[in-house]
Write a structure and sequence with these properties.
By secondary structure, the chain is mainly beta. The chain has four helices and 13 strands. The strands form two sheets. An eleven-stranded parallel beta sheet has the order 1-2-3-4-5-6-7-9-11-12-13, with no helix packed on it. It starts with a strand and ends with a strand.
Amino acid sequence: MPSSYIDQSPEDIWMMQKLMHLNFGCITLPAPPKNYFSSLKNLIFISALHPSSCTPDILGRLPSVQTLRISGNLSCYHSGVSKSLCELHKLECLKLVNESKLSRMVLSEYQFPPSLIQLSLSNTELMEDPMPMLERLPRLQVLKLKRNSYLGRKLACAGSGGFPELKVLHLKSMYWLDEWTMGAGALPKLESLIVNPCAYLRKLPEELWCIKSLRKLDLHWPQTELRQRLRTFEDMEWRYDIQLYPSGI
């Protein structure tokens, strides 16, 4: 029921031992009944959980969850959410959507499980560069910083060891981003890069072209200076699939 919003679900949901999927627009899980110590050990998919339900007592009883979308006022419940995610030792795909326009998410207060393979942030309005923290996730393969996820002007990826497994990087709606730096050896397995838009980004890191696995590059609304820099790679079409929107270098 992906269009349904469940503000109060019954305590009996904790008795559904074979439950594997919860798919709602948003659902709030109740605290487990008193003197009840069992867990939803077969639940592997939740979309979307309200942040008020992201407590150690609740997430600690969902040991098998692999895919989780959390949607709501993340800032209001950031203490519970940030400290509870590490309880999900099998979590592979995480999407965080902040629905509040009055406060921002503070990424440095979050503890992500090292099992993460995919991470998506939306409307989090981060003021701090998220890369220094996220590049330490050892298994991360897909990172999507989407709608208003980061409001800063600079991104910096460290050198060797940063994002060791990342294959897909999607930067969306970073309207003010004008500088991106990268150390040698960062993003060694990157295959696809999408920047939409990149209206103020003056250039891409030179180290990007040293990544042997890189094949796909999509840039939306690049400024003239960046377009001219990309002409250097016109004779390397055999290696790079460079797409500019509006089309044409």
